[in-house]
């Protein structure tokens, strides 16, 4: 549908939503009926406005659900508001304040500005108005403006308004870019048309003329600031439809600049002036229509001006827009993939505009694009085969560069990386128009694959170059399996970016490690990268590790299969191919083992060593795991995960290289005791021997030397004071945790009580080590996530939690009620995600303990409920390992029965599964009840 036809239809539909003349007649009837009773009259007018808006919006929503026409819906809603305002203006000027002998100053024009000025509104949009005067304000004009505004305010509308003369509009527009933009978008609604015409004439002549470069630069700088606040990536999984990158505001900015610089009044004119091709104009309309459909649905569903596409709304929007499930992709994931593709298209349109402005020299060239560099004095372009270098940007020598040799579509990016050049917008535009040249023949071309592998393994900036290729559409065409995951989101709280963005960021982090940066976060990886024998396999494996996401089967297995097919094409040897495939197949293993297994249990290390098999693979897997975790999103990587991975690495490396015999438990215990004795020179031999006898052999095998020293001094001090209950807190800024040490008489519910006290204090337990002494005490080390960056603040919080633990253990507080109160508000909210509860009870993961793995939807108090269930089953918890992956909690408990033996009875194992599943499902029942109430 053409823009003109669409506007005519929108105007016709708007009249059906609300007829301005009929509404004005209603107001006149109310005014005649309620003469002398101003308050009642006002209330009835407000009620009639509310009724008209509610009825019109309900019909507009019904039409949107039927035709899914987003832009048409926005125009209908704008027309609805136009009708209400015109009726109100007639009411104010004819029923309330009629002019008998109007002076030249008693003239008033009402104009729509801002988004409303463009003739498009969402259900919850602000109503931005400009009351335009010929000269200064008069008593009559003030009365009319107030009468209209009070009705709009009392009807519940958010109104942005200004009352200005034509002179003031011109003067303020010169000084303030925001006001200038609002006036640029002004649209006549009602009142004196001559005033509006004069304002626009003077605005064009006195403000716009000669200031195109200034306006364009200011708007693009404003866009950068906005995106810096809302999230610079267009691939954030909870995007802002209005303000986010690739959202409606970007389209608005694009048209503001075009309208100001080229003096056009309709987007259709951009084709005539050569800014857009017909296909690009069609793309503009397609993006605009989709984004408006999403935004209108958001407002309709939430009943408020909500522009963030949050997880709890995404599926509802997907259903409203008619998306369905496909194998491997849920309806919501298909919808969000479409959203991100549209956001990318908006970025492409913005780049086209920037290039056109550069050619026109409407703005400083250094601001055209974040990839462009400041121009130097003009010199003869340098030739690079079919390309030339102009002002440090790579351009094509002629428009046939890619048609003449399709390999140039890859060479273009390789040369840019090799020479550190920015890309010329004209060349990038030609690339996007030449994508059809990337066919099976080019994909199999040895030179093209060699160039691509050089880009992927570059020591300069492979992330930047690969992202350029992805933005231009080349990457997905050259590697079709990559094309399938472009703009694909994963509907969970763990991943912050789309799959393709995650893969590109992981390559960037690998480059960061190779450059020796951020060594304070992952020192071992920075050390190992220098001795890795084959960096190529690491780059290729990272690039492909999630490439099979969105398929019905396990993406690790499917990804390994893709690697075995693709790596030979890229020129990798059979051995390299097998290593890449192995890394992809096992890319989650190290993270899972480190975060959810007892690393002091020799069976854990032995089993992991069997998987890894060689020190070289162990190095590669460690580096890949770190890059993968860090690329998930901000805040996902922390020092605690780093420490767990380092511990797993060193223990496994030791097992693989034969540095220590795993089965030699007795010598290891003796070595640990000697090491502790040497660290306590101020102790007598008798005191040390008495202390050492308090610990069973497993303690010496599990506790690292530094912590063993801290435990010894802590227990000695407690004994001097005669305490049977003591706590100690310490911070660890590097690992991002706070350690809470508890000494208390041993009993099965001890960890449950500690977990409850931590939950009541809002602390997130990340790990728990439970040690039982020979004299009947428990020495528990609880690691909780830090809440404050400063140690003083964190220690105060930790001491409060420790005090709660002590009071709970002495019975001074009733923990159950406190935890229930803490999580009560959480239980009352429906959740966007579902995690099917799973409980695994196995004796295969440890030689000495039964291991319970509980997987479910994370929620406050979950660990408390699980440990309570375990204590009621008369099981001793030896260690607990808590991992959360977004909304998914994976809690692993190493337990024994009360005699210290494994749980071998099948019947009892089934009982454990049943009780633990019930604890996990308790949160699901609360969530379903909340959803039903909602």
Automatic annotation (TrEMBL):
Q: Which residues does the UniProt record annotate as the domain ACT?
A: 739-820, 851-927
MF terms from GO for this chain are: [protein-PII] uridylyltransferase activity; phosphoric diester hydrolase activity
Q: Which SUPFAM superfamilies match?
A: ACT-like, Nucleotidyltransferase, Nucleotidyltransferase substrate binding subunit/domain, Poly A polymerase C-terminal region-like
EC numbers: 2.7.7.59, 3.1.4.-
Q: Which reaction does it catalyse?
A: [protein-PII]-uridylyl-L-tyrosine + H2O = [protein-PII]-L-tyrosine + UMP + H(+); [protein-PII]-L-tyrosine + UTP = [protein-PII]-uridylyl-L-tyrosine + diphosphate
Activity regulation per the record? Answer: Uridylyltransferase (UTase) activity is inhibited by glutamine, while glutamine activates uridylyl-removing (UR) activity.
Q: Which CDD domains match?
A: ACT_ACR-UUR-like_2 (cd04899), ACT_UUR-like_1 (cd04900), HDc (cd00077), NT_GlnE_GlnD_like (cd05401)
Give the cofactors, semicolon-separated: Mg(2+)
Q: Name one Pfam family in it.
A: HD
Tell me where in this chain the HD domain is found.
499-621
The domain comment in this protein's record states: Has four distinct domains: an N-terminal nucleotidyltransferase (NT) domain responsible for UTase activity, a central HD domain that encodes UR activity, and two C-terminal ACT domains that seem to have a role in glutamine sensing.
**What functional role does this protein have?**
Modifies, by uridylylation and deuridylylation, the PII regulatory proteins (GlnB and homologs), in response to the nitrogen status of the cell that GlnD senses through the glutamine level. Under low glutamine levels, catalyzes the conversion of the PII proteins and UTP to PII-UMP and PPi, while under higher glutamine levels, GlnD hydrolyzes PII-UMP to PII and UMP (deuridylylation). Thus, controls uridylylation state and activity of the PII proteins, and plays an important role in the regulation of nitrogen metabolism.
HAMAP family for the chain: PII_uridylyl_transf
Q: Which family does it belong to?
A: Belongs to the GlnD family.
What protein name is recorded for this chain? Bifunctional uridylyltransferase/uridylyl-removing enzyme
Annotated source species: Methylopila turkensis
